[in-house]
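Changelog-adjacent note: as of this version, every example in the card shows the full chain rather than a window. The one below runs 318 residues end to end.
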Amino acid sequence: MLVDKLPAGNDYNQMRAFIAVAEYLSFSRAAEVLGVSPSALSQMIRSFEERVGMRLLHRTTRNVSLTEVGENLFRRVRPAAFELGEALAQTRIAGERPAGTVRVHTFRSAAQKHIEPILTSFAERYPDIVLDITIDDETVDIVALGYDVGLRIGEVIERDMVAVRLGPELRQLAIATPDYFRRHGRPQHPRDLVQHRCVRWRWPGHQAPYAWEFFENDAWFSVAVNGPLIVSDKETAVNAVLQGMGIGFAVEDTVADYLAQGRLISCLEVWSAPFPGWFICYPQQRQMAPALRAFIDAVRFGRSVPNADLSGGANVVG
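Full-length structure tokens:
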């Protein structure tokens, strides 16, 4: 039974002590956070190592580091311990009425897919919550800029953020109008794109346009394309492709309707591998504000869900 596998008494306290030391790689700092003396913490770690029968930490007078066994254990128990703490915290604050401002930073495509559909129902259910949403494709430091939560693709999530997957993997396709391919032919390999007119996109805050990424022989490679237009907005880029300006590069979901209608045709699919899709991410915290929890749950489940949790879905990236 599951209950037989749950840590109890000293087992739980020792595991908590191990996680703290592994997190800070400092006995003094971990002892301060846990509210115990360094000597008591050291004894807890020794008892825990005896319990598991393996050395988990390398200790010298100046440094603390994880053994290989300790590193593997830390990676497995850290997310579970975080989720347990979250569940207990949410139980304590379940009766509170969510209120306040939630500051959100989101990529434009993520906002269209995961935020815009829930706005009305969310406002009706939580009239005391104000959503302050910045829609921007620039990759920013969410914590440093004071945001509570962000939506972005899995490849650009900061280390030590809690990240919850919102959907399947994505892939980018090279696309153009049928007329463009009739007049200029189709590239047979991604590197042939340098001979074509391409509509390019630039990450906000970057000087150079994005180099298109493809997958071959178990490795990613990029192609720096050329063309008559560079924009910082992906929707504008797709509209230019629809007008026949050249070949574009877009996430398949965002152009699926145009492909189904025959207004656009894709090429080079064999080199278009999937990559991590959309995630909602936020910094780890001991007790999450009810307003933030309400927003995360609403985005995750596609509607306003009372008292939902993130069990089974949270993942610490990095």
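Structural remarks: Residues 68-92 form the longest helix (25 residues).
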